[in-house]
Amino acid sequence: MRLSYQYKLLPTADRRAALNAVLDKLRCQYNWLLQERFDWWEQNRSYINACPIDVTHLPELKEQPNYYSQKKSLVYLKKERPWYKDVHSQVLQDMVKRVDLAFSRYIKGNSNGKRSGKPRFKGKGRYRSFTYTQANIDWVDGNKITLPKIGEIKVNWHRKLPDGFDVKTAIISRKADGFYITLTLDDRRVPESNIEPVPMLENSIGVDMGLEKFASDSEGDFIAIPQFFRKAQADIARLQQRLANSKKGSVARKKLVHKIAKLHQKIARQRKQFHFESAQIILNKAEVVYVEALSTTNMSRRAKPKQDEAGKFLPNGQAAKSGLNKSIADAGWASFINILTFKAEKAGQKVIAVNPNGTSQHCSNCLNRVSKELSERWHYCPSCGLELDRDTNAAILIKKVGLGIASLKKARKSLVL
């Protein structure tokens, strides 16, 4: 069983300078190794039909940089640049792993074959965390923790570390309000539970996600959407305007950047707390929760451009789509479902994703298709006479489709009145 506990560090000025120095050294070496990969890829990769051998000079082929060759280069790095001896070896090796992961996702893609964008170099202040891959509980001494190559740092232990757990990794991260440490704990005495609840009509619940109401369940209850970003949007815009008018490199500009970062951090924390509380409310009602298998990436894509016969671009509704995309990002559906799944697994419950296609356009009672615009928030079925909130109807249908009681593949088309 693995858990992660995060605590705030309370470093002195010297320790804070040491932590910032480690991050800056890692950032520089990260950029160096990333550039090495880019150089090899540009100099040694060429298509046959794009490289005329009779007129092009072929440079001597170099060995392709990989995780092991770049990790081996750390030995020579400490000889050429002795100040890198102040960085722990595990931390340096983890930095090499990050380079390899970022470049591999760009070239090969992830396990699903989806490629990421081209990795970017880390600007000053953009490398924000480093990892000790083999941490130890012996580092903890009272209200302090001793980090190798850095020294003792006071910790705000706002909750006690559980007994019987082994500390596996320690991640030091810099946030808007200071440094934090995340300890990964492992207890092998607690076996991974393979017992899962059997989905039944009595112990299940369906949940429909939305923007008017954050969540609607199949029992007719709703969770209001807080819109934390929308509420703070005016303050962010005001600070951003002041930032744009400030002098680059000035102390006032740095203070504004810090203030904006803290405001974004507050919004993120409010949203995360709301997600945890909402997840607990839902899990208190049922052992099995059926949710929509939403693809927020596809839902928040830009509107496709429209052109007339002369090639002139026409209005495509992107302004309205931008507002919708902002609301989707503010709701944080994907993050909520991840939190809901994590809490369910920890409590021995289960979350099942259901294909949401058609769940908002069919009747949950007779499966008749009742087409509705997005602005229509009430469901009325002319076939069976069912009337209820649109989101509640969708939640009931999600539950039925998840349980296999209903299938929308053979659902009837809408009636013509």
Write the layout of secondary structure elements.
Layout: E1 2-10, H1 13-44, H2 67-80, H3 89-107, E2 129-132, E3 140-141, E4 144-147, E5 151-156, E6 166-175, E7 178-186, E8 204-209, E9 213-217, E10 222-224, H4 228-245, H5 251-283, E11 288-292, H6 296-299, E12 306-307, E13 313-314, H7 318-331, H8 333-346, E14 350-354, E15 378-380, E16 387-389, H9 390-403
Helix pairs in contact: 1-3, 2-3, 4-5, 5-8
What keywords describe this structure?
single chain, 417 residues, alpha+beta, Nucleotidyltransferase, domain 5, 2 domains, 9 helices, globular
Radius of gyration: 27 Å
Mean pLDDT: 89
Report the major sheet: 7 strands, antiparallel
Number of helices: 9
Overall structural class, as computed from helix and strand content, comes to alpha+beta
